[in-house]
Amino acid sequence: MFDPDVTGRNYDKIAQWWHEQHAASEYGLLTLRRAMGFCKNTKTALDVGCGAGGRFVRTMESGGFWVTGVDVSCEMVKLAKKANPEHTFIHADICTWETDEKFDLITAWDSIFHLPLTMHEPVLKKLCDMLKPDGVLMYTFGDAEGEHTDTWHNEQYYYSSVGIKGNIEILGNCGLTPVHLELDQFPLNHAVIIGCKRNV
User: Fold this and answer.
1) Residue 137 and residue 106: Cα distance in Å, rounded?
2) pTM greater than the 0.90 cutoff
3) Residue 192 carries which DSSP code?
């Protein structure tokens, strides 16, 4: 079962390894740059599950964004603050974190698939509400509906998804138009979607 404290502690244990492993990685950056290309404004960005604040923060910064990162791992946030003192990083669970700030771009790469199955819709609605008009949301998820646990680095991690159809429906109901959907690691069950908020 999902417990944000357990997930955070699990990532605390591998934070330094994760930081070093992905320091020069291009993982996810092609899709991030694609999402940035849909942005009409490039001022503020939110990175949900920001980790150690490496490649994604650097890429968004190079595109002119001021970045706010949120992560459930305290150690990841410490590393992110140290590496990127000019940006803002917050140790929090996205299920309960609230802000009045609005963003031009929101990313959640390999993070919200750790949410409880029942929290996908409310969290996605929250992220959509946090977008400015013409804002862009990009995130990854499992392509099939359901939940499971898996062992990684000798720890149990929880995963869940509402599937492709569920994600498209939620975005549509929140006023976002899906502009890109890809099984980017086929045959793995890893999907990425980009949605643009309609300026109404």
Assistant:
1) 5
2) yes
3) E
